[in-house]
Structure to design on (98 residues):
């Protein structure tokens, strides 16, 4: 799925180490550009994707490639919006620039 919108908040980056090695995750909140103007909170993990989030500026318009994922923990279900790619929009048009 892809969604276009304006970054309204960048979330705190979290990192650590476990038995699989170093890990990092981050996220951001997007105000969608469609007629509804929904607010969506995306999360991402991995050094490359977190670097994309670091480069974002609040107020910037982007295109996010994502998919919803769900998991069960302690007999409750949780759904996340996992971001897989971020592309910045060029000013004055809809051309996507990486």
């Amino acid at each position: 799925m892809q969604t276009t919108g304006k970054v309204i908040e960048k979330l705190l980056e979290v990192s650590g180490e476990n038995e699989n090695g170093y890990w990092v995750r981050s996220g951001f909140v997007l105000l969608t550009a469609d007629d509804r103007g929904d607010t969506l909170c995306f999360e991402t993990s991995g050094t490359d994707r977190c670097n994309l989030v670091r480069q974002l500026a609040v107020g910037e318009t982007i295109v996010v490639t994502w998919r919803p994922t769900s998991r069960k923990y302690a007999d409750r279900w949780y759904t996340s919006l996992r971001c897989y790619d971020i592309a910045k929009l060029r000013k004055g048009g809809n051309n996507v620039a990486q």
